[in-house]
Design goal:
- The complex is a heterodimer.
- Chain A is mainly α.
- Chain A contains 13 helices and 2 strands; from the N terminus they run ααααββααααααααα.
- Chain A has one domain: ABC transporter involved in vitamin B12 uptake, BtuC (Orthogonal Bundle).
- Chain A is 76% helix and 3% strand.
- Chain A has a two-stranded antiparallel ribbon.
- Chain B is 43% helix and 17% strand.
- Classes of the chains: A mainly alpha, B alpha/beta.
- At the A-B interface, α1, α4, α9, α10 and α13 of A face α1, β2, β8, α9 and α10 of B.
């Protein structure tokens, strides 16, 4: 068993990744609450945005133009999908809505494989300027990208919570989460509210894509399916609570990374999101059953 | 009622988890075919096109005369799936054959080359082998590069009398009588990388590779070398694609220690994320040297890593470094790539060099046949290839009738330098401390160095 000192650098990497998972998870929860859609293409949209950013900077463009292109692409594709397919699928079961986004995922995934091929052993990297500077705490070196990863998760969670609680648009989103029909009857412009939710989710997908491309890998497969960790966090929070999503994402990031130095468990660390999500759902069911049984007796 | 509603929600959530799982599988099983329309980096200027036209006339005995005889059918099976594609190797072999066909062919016969792609599906791979034999009537198999094809088809090829010229990955590509590879593959290439690290007097080695079937077979080579040198070695494996590169890099550096070496055996994208993570965390100088098996030998990697890794990372190279070599063979390789290699997306590099070399050996063998081109005559010619100077390998290449074939067992070491890979160590024999290498040398002896 590694010592506490051995675990310390893994805590830093876990917190940074957890922060980005949180940012993604919050985007997924907000969109789900406003539209009822679990956006499985979140990772693929961010991945393609990051690859576009790489192409822009690789062609000689300044770094900021690549980042902007990434966020604009992610926002554009997400809003486009939401406006095109959202109304048609509005009254369908959530599972149907989620599965429909798999179509977008597969289209983007195929496009990335076509445009950014790896058949010749090509390897790409997207580095942010914040990678090259940082500070040291004890023996552990921390770079500013890691700090940004965690900070982005915290800031987005807090801002989203404030937005949902204190703005008209946020209130409308919360109302739609409770009952879309009644909200529409009350005169809330449902389409506009949904468009705002899709836009916010798309922007977060772009930001997450950029950060994960830097912190993990600029690889279509990796980035596309990293959404699983964020989705697991959102599921643990039952796709409702932003605060719980944040906490769950941080726990997933921490556990996943802190298993790495334990030789016997290292190769199972990728199971963390699934195991925690399944465990949380089972505990929630058990608690609900026990509560109901007590009420009946 | 309340309880039912909630249970229903949970069921919905579990169903979503299942959908996500299916998405992962769908992603892994997709079969893109995307190599045909990407320009090669080598094909850039009119001047180079003109030079290419001159050089490619050396492909055959009748420059500029298109072969019109009965085609000689050859085939190859390559992996092409999301994240892993070896199509550049077969596409480069196809480019070589196209050049031969445009310059007289094989005694006037053009080569018709069938490429089958597979997605690591044993049933599919077995079916493709049968298709090549029974439908396409191929008389030889050249350019196979597949994660599991050697394991699936080796007994089939042996039964039918086919002797394969391939780029190996699975252990059977080197341990069976019917396969001779132009590359060394992950085990012997990892041997080379570890061997170089040992020459630098490191005190410990952390050897890390993908957590896929066959890791034990690969790890046995480096373990034998380290044990013989009395240097401790820590064997690590990582699930791919790597999703926590920072943690992986920290673990490797911790395992190797300050006077140790981290040796990687990954594809270029995975190796890149680990090395970049190490760089971001300031770990590159926390070990004495970093090593890597052949896949890291790409200029893409050297350029993406930047100067911090110059002469810090040492990569085993199974083929002659193309950037610094100006031999007739290398000129021909560049010329064929420029004129016929539009489908070779990676351009100059190990993959296209392997495809070139395999086709080159096959054409050399076919040229020796005087009678009809049958399965028997073609494969007898393949087996008869002996001490052939490919111009791409350290050693002369021999097929032979051995129970196993490791004809490429001498290699280079390269290192990044200003965005390119340059030679750090010339041709060096892989140590016979690896029992497989010892067994092969006992059968075939030590091949002479290429002139």
């Amino acid at each position: 068993m590694p010592s506490w000192q051995d675990f310390q650098p893994f805590i830093v990497t876990g917190l940074a990744l957890g922060g980005v998972y949180a940012l993604s998870g919050v985007g997924l929860v907000v969109l789900y609450r406003a539209t009822g859609v679990v956006y499985l293409a979140f990772g693929a949209v961010g991945a393609m945005g990051a690859l576009i950013a790489w192409s822009v900077t690789n062609a000689g463009g300044p770094g900021w133009s690549g980042w902007l292109a990434c966020v604009l692409f992610a926002a554009g594709v997400t809003v486009g999908y939401g406006m095109l397919f959202g109304p048609a699928l509005a009254k369908r079961d959530p599972l149907v809505k989620a599965t429909a986004t798999l179509g977008l995922l597969l289209v983007l995934f195929g496009t990335m494989d076509l445009l950014w091929t790896t058949s010749g052993g090509e390897s790409r990297a997207l580095s942010l300027p914040t990678d090259n500077s940082g500070f040291t705490v004890g023996q552990i070196q921390i770079n500013w990208t890691q700090v940004i990863g965690l900070a982005a998760g915290v800031v987005i969670t807090v801002l989203t919570a404030l937005f949902l609680r204190h703005t008209r648009l946020g209130t409308a989103m919360r109302a739609m989460a409770n009952d879309r029909e009644i909200t529409a009857t009350l005169g809330v412009p449902v389409r506009r509210v949904e468009a705002a939710a899709w836009l916010g989710c798309g922007v977060l997908a772009g930001i997450a894509g950029l950060l994960l491309a830097d912190m993990v890998a600029l690889d279509a497969t990796t980035l596309t399916f990293l959404v699983i960790s964020s989705l697991a966090a959102a599921l643990i929070a039952r796709l409702r609570s932003i605060a719980f999503t944040f906490a769950a994402a941080i726990v997933i990031g921490l556990v996943q990374n802190m298993l790495v130095p334990i030789s016997s468990l290292s190769n199972y660390s990728d199971m963390t999101p699934f195991v925690l999500a399944a465990a949380a759902l089972l505990v929630l069911v058990r608690r609900r059953v026990m509560t109901s049984s007590r009420e009946e007796s | 009622m309340q309880m039912y509603k909630h249970t229903s929600n949970v069921r919905g959530h579990l169903a979503l988890v299942a959908v996500i799982g299916m998405a992962v599988l769908a992603g892994c099983a997709s079969s893109p075919t995307s190599t045909g329309n990407t320009s090669s980096p080598a094909a850039s200027s009119a001047a180079s096109q003109s030079a290419a036209a001159t050089a490619t006339s050396q492909c055959g005995t009748k420059p500029g005369v298109t072969a019109t005889g009965t085609p000689i059918a050859l085939g190859g099976i390559v992996t092409n799936e999301a994240g892993t594609s070896f199509t550049d190797i077969a596409n480069m072999a196809a480019a070589y054959f196209a050049c031969v066909n445009a310059n007289g062919g094989i005694n006037g016969h053009p080569v018709k080359y069938y490429i089958e792609t597979e997605q690591t599906n044993p049933a599919q791979i077995a079916a493709e082998a049968k298709q090549l034999v029974q439908t396409d009537h191929v008389v030889g198999i050249v350019g196979n590069t597949s994660i599991i094809e050697c394991s699936i088809d080796s007994s089939y090829w042996q039964r039918l009398g086919y002797d394969i010229i391939d780029s190996g990955i699975a252990p059977e590509c080197w341990s069976t009588p019917s396969s001779a590879a132009v590359n060394m593959g992950p085990r012997y290439s990892s041997d080379g990388a570890v061997q170089y690290a040992l020459t630098q007097h490191v005190s410990k080695i952390a050897f890390d590779q993908s957590n896929v079937p066959g890791t034990g077979y690969i790890a046995a080579g480096p373990a034998a070398l380290a044990a013989a040198a009395r240097v401790p070695i820590t064997q690590l494996t990582e699930n791919v694609p790597i999703t926590n590169a920072d943690s992986v890099a920290i673990r490797e550096v911790d395992a190797a220690g300050p006077n140790g070496a981290v040796v990687l055996n990954f594809t270029p994208p995975e190796a890149l994320v680990i090395l970049q993570a190490a760089q971001k965390l300031g770990l590159e100088d926390r070990v004495k040297i970093w090593g890597c098996s052949t896949p890291c030998n790409t200029d893409f990697l050297a350029a993406a890593l930047g100067p911090k890794w110059d002469h810090k990372l040492f990569v085993n190279a199974e083929l002659t470094p193309p950037d610094v070599t100006n031999t007739p063979t290398m000129s021909l390789y560049r010329a064929i790539l420029a004129k016929y290699g539009k489908a070779v997306s990676g351009g100059i590099g190990s993959f296209s060099q392997m495809g070139f070399t395999e086709a080159e050996i096959a054409v050399h063998a076919l040229d020796t046949i005087t009678g009809p081109y049958t399965v028997a005559s073609v494969n007898a010619a393949f087996r008869a290839v002996s001490n052939f100077n490919t111009g791409m390998l350290c050693q002369l290449w021999t097929y032979g009738t051995y129970a196993m074939h490791i004809p490429n067992n001498e290699d280079y070491t390269v290192t990044p330098d200003n965005g390119k890979m340059v030679t750090a160590q010339g041709c060096t024999q892989i140590s016979s401390v690896d029992p497989q290498i010892a067994a092969y040398r006992k059968l075939a002896g030590v091949a002479a160095l290429a002139p």
